[in-house]
From TrEMBL:
One GO molecular-function entry: extracellular ligand-gated monoatomic ion channel activity
Recorded GO CC terms: synaptic membrane
Protein's UniProt name: Cholinergic Receptor Nicotinic Alpha 1 Subunit
Primary localisation category: membrane
Tagged with keyword Coiled coil: no
Keyword field contains Repeat: no
Keywords tagged on the record: Membrane, Receptor, Synapse, Transmembrane, Transmembrane helix
SUPFAM superfamilies cross-referenced by the UniProt entry: Nicotinic receptor ligand binding domain-like
Originating species: Gallus gallus (Chicken)
Spans through the membrane: 37-55
Gene: CHRNA1
Localization per Swiss-Prot or TrEMBL: Synaptic cell membrane
Source organism superkingdom: Eukaryota
Topology in membrane: Multi-pass membrane protein
Amino acid sequence: GEWVMKDYRGWKHWVYYACCPDTPYLDITYHFLMQRLPLYFIVNVIIPCLLFSFLT
């Protein structure tokens, strides 16, 4: 995995719109906090590029 899920949250809100003031609509909001792990990028992109640069 190149990404790690650090935190996640969800909120549920009832929203009333002007067109239908008597009808509540459910609104769900999610918040994800993710961290990128650069090891995959370094091993598969940076190191081969450096090796090819030194060979030429």
